[in-house]
Design a protein that fits this description.
The chain is α+β, with helices and mostly antiparallel strands and 209 residues long. 19% of the residues lie in helices and 33% in strands.
């Protein structure tokens, strides 16, 4: 059963109810829906708390996809013994919001950087305190002060960042929408699982969502 990833429609959700649909051999908990972002695209998975039907609070140390198509997600408890969860049991989950929000801010900042530097992206990482993007730049000579000024200008102008889904056909017709050279979004579901982030400067596929 696929996991309904609520964060893809509303990344500001902090908690929700869910149902246990599977328990993995490694101690992971698979839910019918979640607000936990799974580790992907250079961004670590969310941490938080799962509260069982009997009121026990279980600390969640990470979330990760268990299939290549990224349709099913497992939540990994910090302690995998003595969970006493059952398939079909209703639970309530909550993410560590301050950590998530810090990562969201860094993620958006890196998208602005990718708009300022019009080069293919070969890698990157998103953290709550720092992040990075690796670019395929044909020649050196970038002006750090100019780049900083452009980024500051976009922030000062409160440039709107929007998200929308794109279809498989739309991406295949315009592959340049994907700036990440090393990681391509999975196709075959009718629409691209990753979202399109738009601003007045560029169109890029958001990594890791």
């Amino acid at each position: 059963m696929s996991t309904d990833c609520l964060f893809r429609e509303d990344s500001y959700l902090k908690d929700c109810s869910a149902t246990v649909v599977a328990l993995t051999e490694t101690g992971g908990v698979v839910l019918d829906r979640t607000i936990f972002y799974a580790a992907s695209g250079g961004q670590p998975g969310d941490t938080g708390t799962l509260r069982s039907a009997n009121g026990n609070a279980i600390r969640i140390a990470n979330a990760a996809y268990v299939d290549r198509e990224k349709t099913e997600m497992t939540h990994s408890p910090a302690v995998s013994t003595g969970l006493d969860l059952k398939i079909g049991e209703p639970v309530h989950i909550a993410i560590d919001w301050d950590l998530r929000y810090a990562r969201m801010r860094m993620h958006t900042a890196l998208h602005l950087l990718s708009a300022v530097l019009p080069y293919p992206v070969t890698g990157g990482a998103v953290g709550d305190r720092e992040g990075r993007l690796d670019f395929d730049i044909p020649e050196a000579g970038l002006d750090k002060d100019e780049i900083t000024a452009k980024l500051a200008g976009m922030v000062a102008a409160s440039v709107e960042v929007r998200a929308r889904w794109i279809s498989d056909a739309e991406l295949e017709a315009n592959p340049a929408l994907v700036k990440t050279m090393s990681v391509k979004p999975p196709l075959g579901t009718g629409r691209v699982i990753k979202r399109m982030v738009e601003n007045v400067h560029a169109l890029t596929v958001r990594a890791g969502t």
